[in-house]
Amino acid sequence: MVQNKYRVTFISPNEMEQRTVMSASSLPNLIRKVENVMADPNGYFINDKKNNCYFQVIKQNVTFIQYELLFSDKAVHIEKVKHVAPAVMRKLFQTMRSPEIYALALLDVDEETKGFLLTEMDDHLRKQVEKELTQKWEVAPAEISEAQEVLLNTLESLINE
């Protein structure tokens, strides 16, 4: 599974910032990791600027958490799809008509990306994908990752044409 590098910045009410760099396969996966570390009384983060410097984050003392994608070995990343030209997206939707793949891929993306993809789809495909999304999904993260990879590989080949 692809591991992306993200910078996570915690901002306190007095505007003090603490940063760490973490790896995760997707933004929702990273958010779950961060929340798990914050919920763990023994959980800590490593400061990204100082070696061997650790810090704890108490959820009540954080006013904002910023997530920034630093590195991905994919040419097009699922969270960056919303920056792809609408004409290329329409071509993708004409080329790949499988609502199941889109639904699986959308299970583990941020709401902005999900909304972008659904609004760019034609009405017929969007209704099919929304129907698939309303069904209860019991899928492994690997299946979601594979669906996203199929979608991104198809998109990458369309961009390279």
TrEMBL record:
Domain of life where this protein originates: Bacteria
Gene3D superfamilies (alphabetical): 1.10.220.30
Xref: InterPro entries: Flg_Motor_Flig_C (IPR023087), FliG_a-hlx (IPR011002)
Annotated coiled-coil segments of the chain: none
Domain Flagellar motor switch protein FliG C-terminal span(s) in chain numbering: 74-160
Protein's recorded name: FliG C-terminal domain-containing protein
Organism listed in the record: Bacillus yunxiaonensis
